[in-house]
Amino acid sequence: MNTLELEGQLLASVSRSFYLSIRVLPGLIRAPIGLAYLLARASDTIADTEDVPAEIRLQHLAAFAGMIQRGTTEGLGALQRDIRPEHAGERTLIDRLGDALEWLATISSFDRTEILIVMERIIRGQTLDLKRFAAVEEVVALGTAEELEEYTYLVAGCVGEFWTRICLHHLADYSRIDAEPLRELGVNYGKGLQLVNILRDLRADLRSGRCYLPEDELRAAGTSPRTLFEHPEAGRPVFNRWHARAQALLDDGRSYIEALQPARLRIGCFLPWYLGVKTLALLVEKPPLETPERVKVPRSTVRAALAFAPLIAVTNRALGWVK
Questions:
Q1: pLDDT value at 85 more than 60
Q2: Which are the contacts of 154, defined by CB distance < 8 A and separation ≥ 6?
Q3: Model pLDDT for residues 163-199, shown as the tens digit of each residue
């Protein structure tokens, strides 16, 4: 499989929503961003393959981090034997990791260094997650707000940072504002998208023995991670606080898009933001702790995002029309 196939066919098979964004990007940045996404999706697959013991997954995560940082394939064969996800696209991605690592070796020094930095942070976040929640017999929660903020940065905020640095390096007209405030907005935008996912998946995560709502806040509200299933309404004040935090972070995402100049980059950043905003609104109508089914935006919302996109490309006024 060549780099075009990795960037196109394989990327679409593991994330159709992200593929909507990346397909509109200029070629100079499409390659490093697409490759970074594939590597991050691979590490996520390693971390989430639940039929493999957590200790083995941690070993493979560490080995994969070493492959990325040192440019080797030591341990790849064992990883590919052990990590066999059910999802066909993810399974193909694991099988083609050697190609992705070869691709990493061929890109520019700047892009490769940025990928190494962001992947070190992502894998650190995934490793912390596995160590916190693996092999537990009851529900375990993050301890504090600081732990949740750290986690959202390590697995998503740093991606907004990476995206910003790559684009500023390659595109002279990327932003209307200075690099540092743009970087901060990018971090918050990434954290906001991750927090939306966390809030949407609260019920499913509880079933798996993990709770991302901070335990100290739940106890202050008179509940605990272990009683949320029986009395989900008791966790509503904590959910509402983090819902408001997600909204504030996505507001920074809006500011990030407003600062951009290239039309295709505005579209690429708008699409996930729009879906995040709409998902957050649905979580008010269907609170995830109290709703059995997983909240998911309908296909009509995706079509609406694509319809909005040409307007977003040319004017900030259209962002104000999104409610």
A1: yes
A2: 121, 122, 124, 125, 128
A3: 999 999 999 999 999 999 999 999 999 999 999 999 9
Mean pLDDT of the chain: 91
Specify the residue for token string 């950043």.
269
Instruction: Give this prediction's pTM.
Output: 0.92
Distances 13 to 41, 108, 284 between C-alpha atoms, Å? 11, 26, 31
The tens digit of pLDDT for each residue in 95-144 reads 999 999 999 999 999 999 999 999 999 999 999 999 998 766 788 999 99
| DSSP string across 9-28 | IIHHHH-HHHHHHHTTS-HH
Compute the average pLDDT of residues 206-230. 93
Under 8 Å between Cβ of 189 and 160: yes
Q: What is the per-residue DSSP string for 101-166?
A: HHHHHHS-HHHHHHHHHHHHHHHHHHHHHHHHHTT-SS-EE--SHHHHHHHHIIIIIHHHHHHHHH
Phi, psi angles (nearest 5°) of residue 173 = -105, 25
53 Ramachandran zone, left/alpha/beta (phi>0; psi -120 to 50): beta
Token duo for residue 182: 């743009």
What is the pLDDT at residue 1? 44
Q: Which two tokens stand for residue 226?
A: 């272990």
Instruction: DSSP for 287-309, please give it.
Output: -TTT-SSPP---HHHHHHHHHHH
The burial of 317, by beta-carbon neighbours within 10 Å (0-12 exposed, 13-18 middle, 19 or more buried), is given as: exposed
Give Cβ neighbours of residue 233 (< 8 Å, ≥ 6 apart): 289, 290
Q: Residues 258-291: pLDDT tens digits?
A: 999 999 999 989 999 999 999 999 999 999 998 8
User: Position 152: which residue type?
Assistant: T
Vertex 276, ends 161 and 250: CA angle to 5°? 55
